[in-house]
Amino acid sequence: EDELSRSSHSNPGKSFINGIKTNPASNSPKSSLPVPMGPPVYVDLAYIPNHCSGKNTDPEFFKRVRASYYVVSGNDAANGEPSRAVLDALLEGKSHWGENLQVTLIPTHDTEVTREWYQQTHEKQQELNIMVLASSSTVVMQDESFPACKIEF
To answer: Segment Disordered: which positions (predicted)?
Structure first.
């Protein structure tokens, strides 16, 4: 770690992501060198990166980050948030787990993309033991109200 830290300070044109040297001039994370394989990480709750945008999340994320609950926070169709490709990547990644652990997907907004994905892939979700949690509560704060879910561990 010390060597990685020193080399990133001595060469400001390069940076490190997960210990792999990358070129910051590249806008696409998929053009960087692949991250070495390692064991998956199990967590209770994970937010899907970048508002569920397809820019940074692919099936590899879901193969490596295995969560009981994934939060989908995207609500900007103009920017592809949430991305259908990312929701499909969840199905693809989970199909490689080799164990049928329960996964709950928690969308923070009711979007057309999420509804269509849910309807079109419902059988696959059941096969992979994925449940999509619909919000049944509303939180009111000052002049704003929004849907909410309660999760207990």
So the answer is: 1-34
